[in-house]
């Protein structure tokens, strides 16, 4: 392109063509060699008259007439090489923009290891705004932008000299004479938090980028390429400059050179830090690295404040599974037990259900100027008690105030001491083990079990199932169809409409309205079937107080074993017999000791007593006193037993209507087999004669 001599103002391309310089040479001419330039409408412009005058001065001052042949040949060679590089200089501003969008331009290149630092400065190569915490980011030259793009981009690799100062492990920023350029590593995620940090850093540097969202989009569109982000004034002043971020948590350091003789020492950096009152978190290793390598134009993080550490939030540690759901229980061999769905978490009164750790205060931080930054304390959290749950005095523990199932409801810890099954105990809910009271609206189906610490109420019946109340009663509105599989145990009483082919054990009474058939029943109290249809047919029944029914046995002569006795826990013998034996044994020992003491007393000479006899008499007397106390306690125990169960008639086996043959009665070891039908008979033991069973009319 031929520049018209009538033009007053020249653009960059026209000036490069007029002077025969590439962009690096033009940049050096402006920065170091006094070529006048100015900014117009955001572009660099030149007055033709200024360029002409500058050329005249350079031609006069830099004449090569006096150069040696050797130097002249070298200069000519360099000029030929550079002229070849300029062969494709565009003929318009649009073409110029398109060219640099797809080609590396010398003034935009980073640190070039093929050229010495001085040459780089002369050609306008400047460093990057970077961070001391870096990982090398590889460039991606395969993603060249479209040739018609109006975004000024150049391809440039991140060489090893950039590694030390890469910003947020993702970005590189650098300054040309009048431009700020930015490049993003190809591997950066568009949603990375680093983009937010970059925006804050750009603001800290005072770069006017306009719409950051548009800039981010360009950076993501052209990874690994340099993107012009802002016009800048000439940042090169020949000194160490400290820039403090807006939040005063970061201090940047820029070393700049005005010519190849510029040298900055560590003392200059220390002075710049002192001038900005930077006292906290200074990175002297980075400072020394910059000085030792004279890394001009590279903005590095030279100091970082200490961020405040927020206090930890209050936490609640629950001592139970707050998300527990009903699910099958795994058993051996990888099988699953669908009858045990493990849907209940039992707790006892006083059990700790939740523990709260209080919120802690935070640790204050400091900015780079040493100012204290307060830290927020952790947030509190509410620990809310629900039903049957109490809070400790210090407010840090929740405990159960009742036995039952613990669970979460509406963010509150609750303990339910009543467990209600709306239907049957079957595969829909699984077997039950509960620490409180259980109410079952339906039946307990075959193969399932119900256990509870308190009472159990069953509205329908029990099939071949297991039911146990560890501390209460069992009440069954309908009957027990045991199928020789059902087992019922209760610490208290057991009541049902009927019991058929079941094993029953009660700490109190067992009673039915109708039949007890072919069952094994043991009761610490009485066994009674006294409804209008009450009968006991077959089986083996054991009671401590009484056995009663409308009829005992059957007209088909079914063998029915009825036993009345209270067994001693130690001897497993009837209690009455055990107590009598104990009483008789103590009485006999007391009698023997009394006689022995009297015999010794008679042998003692009152005038000259023998010491050994006196000592023996004293020891025996002491033993006798102990036996007298045991005798008194045993008498009280016998009297209490007789008062409770009577001497005769109180402990009995009774048929209100009929007792049939093959009913075998056993009262405290005394046995009687019924051979003939008898009506309204009552059987009891004659305590005066333990071998006799008395029968009288009911």
What distance separates the N and C termini?
140 Å
How much helical structure, as a percent, in the residues?
A: 10-25%
Query: How large is the radius of gyration?
Result: 53 Å
Q: What fraction of residues sit in β-strands?
A: 25-35%
Oligomer: single chain
**Main sheet record:** 24 strands, mixed
Low-confidence stretches: 1-6, 88-164
Label the structural class: alpha/beta
Number of discrete helical segments = 13
Quick one: overall form?
Answer: elongated
The counted number of beta strands is 47
Average pLDDT, all residues: 77
- Tally the structural domains: 4
Summarize the structure.
With 698 residues, this protein is of the alpha/beta class.
Structural account:
The chain has a 24-stranded mixed sheet that branches. It has a 5-stranded antiparallel sheet with strand order 4-6-7-8-5. It has 4 domains: about 90 residues, no CATH class; about 210 residues, no CATH class; about 100 residues, no CATH class; about 160 residues, no CATH class. Strand 9 and strand 10 form a beta hairpin. The N terminus is likely disordered. The protein starts with 8 loop residues before the first strand and ends with a strand. Helices cover about 25% and strands about 30% of the residues. The chain has about 700 residues and is an alpha/beta fold.
Keywords:
single chain, 698 residues, alpha/beta, 4 domains, 24-stranded mixed β-sheet, five-stranded antiparallel β-sheet, elongated, disordered N terminus
